[in-house]
Write a structure and sequence with these properties.
The chain is α/β, with parallel strands linked by helices. The chain has helices at residues 41-48, 71-77, 93-100, 109-115, 132-144, 162-174, 186-192, 210-215, 220-227, 285-288, and strands spanning 4-13, 16-26, 31-34, 56-61, 64-65, 78-81, 150-154, 178-183, 195-200, 203-209, 272-275, 278-280. The structure holds adenosine-5'-triphosphate. This is Peptide/nickel transport system ATP-binding protein.
């Protein structure tokens, strides 16, 4: 079932578009948006949260566009999991979570803390009195407070060390809430997302079932991303190793970095079916796999 759908969405700030003509469905089993810094993942997530209106195209929530949808129902159904740093440092954990609960249900704070694997007594502490992993669990508890059907998570584990990260992934994998997950960490999407979309310079360059997509990328950019992490489950790529997604001005946005570019790449390739439920925007997609 599709919960949210982007239909030919172009997004930007002021007059500058940074996400171009993206169509994708948020379906069951987890959906991952993968791409390097600046590729437009967070911008797309904001549009899915109704925080940024498309310059063109639409975000659909059921049979309504977000522009016309009942936003009260939407906010109950779709919750962001923001970075733990965004917790109010002055507020006790219990109050932070209670604030997100409907009136009359504030006694559920302890229950929510336990649901995310924390002791209910932590409610009396302030964020700086918790570890990074505990803070991230609090953020998840807060998002779960209204009983959402979908969580939109932006790099939910990137600030955590690998073992803590693994435990948070276990927690997220065990929730019966759907998820749209934004990350540059391929191990995270492999664990939590049945389907993934790879973004480069604001365009989807490859989509498909995560496992197959990572095992045999059809787009040279997906292959480069995957090869930058030699072993899935290992540490995420270092931020310092990433470069901004500077696209070629014409043709395939990736062609200036692409090891297999041919003259044909001066014409932008459309996203097309390459078999196995997969799509890739590359003239040479068959050759890459
Ligand atoms: N508030 C803003 N105003 C203007 N430009 C912005 C704003 N936020 C993001 N951008 C630009 O939009 C582009 C996409 O940014 P976005 O944050 O969506 O990328 P990202 O893939 O989430 O990157 P990261 O992994 O570093 O968070 C970038 O070129 C960025 O500079």
């Amino acid at each position: 079932m599709t919960m949210l759908r982007a239909e030919r969405v172009t997004l930007g700030y002021g007059k500058r578009a940074v996400v171009h003509d993206v169509s994708l469905d948020v379906t069951e089993g987890g959906v991952g948006l993968i791409g390097e810094s600046g590729s437009g993942k967070t911008t797309l997530a904001r549009a899915f949260l109704g925080l940024l209106a498309p310059m063109s195209g639409a975000i659909w929530y059921g049979d309504q566009t977000l522009k016309n949808a009942d936003m009260r129902a939407f906010r109950r159904d779709v919750q962001p999991v923001f970075q733990a740093e965004a917790l109010d440092p002055r507020m006790r954990i219990g109050s932070s979570i209670a604030e997100a609960l409907p009136r009359g249900e504030r006694a559920r704070v302890g229950q929510l803390l336990e649901q995310v694997g924390l002791d209910a007594t932590l409610a009396a502490r302030r964020p700086h009195q918790l570890s990074g992993g505990q803070r991230q669990r609090v953020v998840i508890a807060r998002a779960l407070a209204v009983g959402p059907r979908l969580l939109i998570l932006d790099e939910p584990t990137s600030a955590l060390d690998v073992t803590v990260q693994a435990r948070i992934l276990d927690l997220l994998a065990g929730l019966d809430t759907e998820r749209l997950l934004i990350t540059h960490n391929l191990a995270v999407v492999e664990r939590l997302c049945r389907t993934s979309h790879v973004l480069f310079a604001g365009r989807v360059v490859e989509s498909g079932p995560t496992r197959e997509l990572l095992a045999a990328p059809a787009h040279p950019y997906t292959k480069a991303l995957r090869d930058a992490v030699p072993k899935l489950g290992g540490a995420p790529p270092e931020a310092k190793g990433r470069t901004e997604a500077v696209p070629a001005a014409t043709g395939c946005a990736y062609r200036l970095r692409c090891p297999i570019a041919v003259p044909e790449c001066e014409q932008a390739p459309p996203l097309r079916d390459v078999g196995g439920g997969r799509q890739a925007a590359c003239h040479l997609a068959g050759d890459v796999t």
